[in-house]
């Protein structure tokens, strides 16, 4: 596994941890361009090279919105689509203005999943990305401090399966994170203050979004800056004393598991994928040129070696054909990505309209658009009245025509009787 380098960016400072190297970079009062230059100077002065490392950027819990949802699916792709359709009414942004990732918390026997969705404004994510990109630091993942605390929590030797907690007491804030061994549940960040305020926030954190009281029956750990609390269980983090907490960084840097939340902007990830495909195409072109050169040399040798060399060349040509097919498929993927990007605004408008029309008791589990702009929707609801209302609202909408309710099938689950349906229409 590649060695891990972690940066934790906050207003006024950036903490850095890699192996036994830990430092805090002062960025107070600096513009984003100045912060990038400060980071660039830091790398040159310390002679750091990240070409063989995996670099993770940690953002504060206070910069994201955490939402808990229960959805009628256990497949990651379907869950992501459901979150995209339903998140508009739960955050003070439209879907196109945010980046979202999630972690599945639990699954039920009747096909439902409880998830924690992490939402960050796209402007904030792009700002952090640009700061490090301008400093020539290759960021492979962007996660939040709560995930780092959970990864530190689960590395402790006496962690049980029961709900526990870790409190990170830093110089200017306190973060409270409730954790299971298998996932983190919820978290809260507050300005560092008197014990009474911390205890109050501790009580608030133990109440979930439904008002249910969460009982912390597992261990509760304290971590933080030297002089306030010591970082747990990780000797590298214990040995450093840089005046601020290294707990979130230590949890990520010392874990063999990659952080489950990645908030790198989608546009950046797509650009990286396209660049990777182009690099593979260039490499294949060089390889093909070398094969042609080998062919030319082979044609000039004596006849006594001709048969053996031709057999080798035939093998090389077969390999080249297989590689060419791979490149063709990769180019098709690039074309599909470009087509998706060109149609992004149209899809966003469609998703927004569906989210506006969708009744509270109706969940969509799949959506497909075929040739001729034929839209197919499949979903589930406990109320057939809501399904009929959804069809009627689609008929009344100017975005859809030829709206047809193809079928409604009743099924019995542990939660009662539900209705699976399919609607098709023309965009």
Fold and architecture overview:
With 427 residues, the protein is an alpha+beta fold. Among the domains are: 266-342; 345-426, 2-Layer Sandwich (Gyrase A, domain 2). Helices cover 40% and strands 29% of the residues. The protein contains eleven helices and 16 strands. The strands form four sheets. It has a five-stranded mixed β-sheet with strand order 3-2-1-4-8, sandwiched between helices. The protein has a four-stranded mixed β-sheet with strand order 11-10-9-12. A four-stranded antiparallel β-sheet has the order 13-14-16-15. A hairpin with a 2-residue loop joins strand 2 (13-18) and strand 3 (21-26). The longest helix is centred in the last third of the chain and has 37 residues, at 306-342. The chain is globular, with a radius of gyration of 27 Å. 26% of the residues are buried. The model has no long low-confidence stretch (mean pLDDT 84).
Q: What is this structure's SSE topology?
A:
Elements: E1 4-10, E2 13-18, E3 21-26, H1 32-46, E4 54-59, E5 65-71, H2 76-86, E6 98-107, E7 113-121, H3 122-134, E8 141-144, H4 145-153, E9 164-169, E10 173-179, E11 184-191, H5 195-205, E12 220-224, H6 235-239, H7 247-253, H8 266-299, H9 306-342, H10 344-357, E13 362-370, E14 374-381, H11 384-396, E15 401-413, E16 416-426
Parallel strand pairs: 1-4, 4-8, 9-12
Antiparallel strand pairs: 1-2, 2-3, 5-7, 6-7, 9-10, 10-11, 13-14, 14-16, 15-16
């Amino acid at each position: 596994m590649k060695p891990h380098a972690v940066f934790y960016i906050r207003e006024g400072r950036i903490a850095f941890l890699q192996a036994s190297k830990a430092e805090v970079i002062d960025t107070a009062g600096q513009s984003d361009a100045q912060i990038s230059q400060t980071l660039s100077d830091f790398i040159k002065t310390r002679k750091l090279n990240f070409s063989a490392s995996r670099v993770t950027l940690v953002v504060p819990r206070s910069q994201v919105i955490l939402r808990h949802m229960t959805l009628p699916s256990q497949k990651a792709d379907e869950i992501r689509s459901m979150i995209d359709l339903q998140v508009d009414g739960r955050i003070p942004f439209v879907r196109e203005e945010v980046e979202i990732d999630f972690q599945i918390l639990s699954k039920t026997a009747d096909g439902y999943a409880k998830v924690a969705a992490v939402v960050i404004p796209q402007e904030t994510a792009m700002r952090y990305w640009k700061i490090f990109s301008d400093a020539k630091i290759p960021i492979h993942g962007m996660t939040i401090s709560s995930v780092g605390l959970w990864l530190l929590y689960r590395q402790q030797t006496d962690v049980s399966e029961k709900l526990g907690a870790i409190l990170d007491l830093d110089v200017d804030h306190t973060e409270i994170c409730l954790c299971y061994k298998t996932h983190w549940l919820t978290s809260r960040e507050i300005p560092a203050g008197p014990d009474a305020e911390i205890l109050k926030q501790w009580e608030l954190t133990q109440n979930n979004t439904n008002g249910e009281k969460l009982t912390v029956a597992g261990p509760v750990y304290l971590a933080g800056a030297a002089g306030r609390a010591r970082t747990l269980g990780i000797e590298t983090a214990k040995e450093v004393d840089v005046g601020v907490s290294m707990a979130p960084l230590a949890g990520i840097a010392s874990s063999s598991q990659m952080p489950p939340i990645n908030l790198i902007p989608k546009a950046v990830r797509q650009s990286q994928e396209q660049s990777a495909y182009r690099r593979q195409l260039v490499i294949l072109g060089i390889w093909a040129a070398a094969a042609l050169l080998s062919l030319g040399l082979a044609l000039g040798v004596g006849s006594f070696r001709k048969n053996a060399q031709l057999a080798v060349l035939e093998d090389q040509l077969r390999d080249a054909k297989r590689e060419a097919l791979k490149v063709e498929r990769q180019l098709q993927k690039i074309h599909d990505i470009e087509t998706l990007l060109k149609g992004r605004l149209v899809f966003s408008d469609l998703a927004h309209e569906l989210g506006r029309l969708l009744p509270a008791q109706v969940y969509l589990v799949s959506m497909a658009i075929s040739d001729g702009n034929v839209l197919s929707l499949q979903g589930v609801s406990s109320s057939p009245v809501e399904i009929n209302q959804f069809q009627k609202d689609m008929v009344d909408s100017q975005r859809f025509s030829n709206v047809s309710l193809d079928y409604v099938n009743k099924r019995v689950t542990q939660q009662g009787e539900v209705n699976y349906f399919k609607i098709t229409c023309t965009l």
